[in-house]
Amino acid sequence: MPELPATDAEIELLVRGLVAAKVGGVEGVGKVFAEPFFVSGKQQYVEKLGVENAEGDIEVRCLFVEFAGFEDMPKGCEDAPHYYLLYQLRAVQEFIAEREGGGSSAKDFAAFVMNLRAAFLTGRDLGYSGRLYHERLTQTRRVALEDDDYTGVFGHAAPFTLKVEVVPNG
Questions:
Q1: What kind and span of H or E run contains 112?
Q2: The model's pTM
Q3: Residue 104 and residue 95: Cα distance in Å, rounded?
């Protein structure tokens, strides 16, 4: 089995990156962010959050992977229990009622959410066989069409929770 980094903080950073990479491979994701950021001005906002759609227009489409804490498990030994790292994933897509070439953000977002679900049903090993294993993705509330507090866009939003089991070295 490959060795994990030496500290729990380094393991968390590794896992967040692995989750972001897995999400980045899902069709329709847009941009993936595993770190908070600040933008200043509309141009920087568009450059950071915008993606080009099939018609050549820029729209916001992104997913945030945020560390949400941990849960110790009864497995393992007293000073090195197995534990879960907890993540909040939040998908956001700007509302576009109908595009010139057909389609809409509602159809695209529904497809993305289902593709995201499918990505977390299989391949649960995150590349550290027997050491890092994610559970199924859980949607924590219904998809909403609303103003997104973080991006500032009116669009589709869906929050998810993900648990990743960590089996410590040793």
A1: helix 105-119
A2: 0.89
A3: 8
Q: Residue 94, class by beta-carbon neighbours within 10 Å (0-12 exposed, 13-18 middle, 19+ buried)?
A: buried
Q: What is the DSSP letter of 23?
A: H
Alpha helices in 37-104 (DSSP H): 42-49
**Which residues of the chain fall short of a pLDDT of 50?**
none
The packing angle between helices 8-24 and 105-119, to 10°, is 130
Residue position matching structure tokens 């009116």: 154
DSSP letter assigned to residue 125: B
Residue 119 tokens read as 């990505």
CA distance 17 to 103: 32
Rounded distance, CA 32 to CA 108, Å? 17
Q: For residue 32, what are its two tokens?
A: 């993936």
Contacts of 122 (CB under 8 A, 6+ apart): none
- Tokens representing 144 are 């909403």
pLDDT at position 54: 65
pLDDT recorded at residue 34: 95
